[in-house]
Amino acid sequence: MVGLPQPWTADDHAAQVAMVVRIAVRSAKRRGVRLESLLPIPRRWLLDLCDAGDPTAMVIHDWLTGSKKHLPSELDGVVAASPIGTQEDAQ
Fold first, then answer.
1. What DSSP letter does each residue of 12-74 carry, written as one string?
2. 63 in a domain, yes or no?
3. Would you give the distance in Å from CA 54 to the centre of its chain?
4. Number of domains into which the chain is organized
5. By residue range, what is the domain housing residue 37?
6. What integer pLDDT is reported at residue 81 of this predicted model?
7. Are 56 and 48 in contact, with CB atoms under 8 Å apart?
8. 60 to 1, 75, 81, 91: CA distances (angstroms)
9. What's the confidence (pLDDT) of residue 7?
10. Which of 3, 67, 71, 78 is most buried as measured by Cβ atoms within 10 A of its Cβ?
11. Is the separation of the CB atoms in 42 and 23 below 8 Å?
12. Is 89 a residue whose pLDDT tops 50?
């Protein structure tokens, strides 16, 4: 039938997650590491992915909200000690 939405392929889902993660990291660099740094539409996409159970989205959400619920225990100290860098930091 024409007009009915098709289910996402694994590649479509991976591309959506990658796009949301890029937007989240870019927003955190510019506006600070918090959920509110995301504009409303990308924030909704992130929350929708979290509601769907996407593990990458849940880790990004936890990072933005300061939660360590979904963070692997071996990365706990690394993330706390790692500030967001800028392009100038890489040079």
1. HHHHHHHHHHHHHHHHHHHH-SSGGGS-HHHHHHHHHHHHTT-HHHHHHHHHHHT--TTS-GG
2. yes
3. 10
4. 1
5. 33-69
6. 47
7. no
8. 37, 14, 16, 26
9. 76
10. 71
11. yes
12. no
Q: Which amino acid is at 37?
A: S
Lookup: tokens for 45: 């996409």
- Rounded CA gap, 27 and 53, in Å? 22
Cα(34)–Cα(13) distance, integer angstroms: 24
Report which residue type is found at 28: A
Residue-wise pLDDT for 54-83, tens only, equals 999 999 999 899 887 766 676 666 555 455
Contact yes or no for 68/59 (Cβ under 8 A) = no
- Residue 34 pLDDT greater than 60, yes or no: yes
Find the distance separating the first CA and the last CA of the chain, reported in whole Å. 53
- Distance in angstroms (rounded) separating the CA atoms of residues 70 and 89: 28
Structural domain includes residue 7 = no
Q: Can you give the pLDDT at residue 2?
A: 58
Report the candidate in 55, 58, 61, 63 with the shortest Cα–Cα distance to residue 83. 63
At 90 the pLDDT is 43
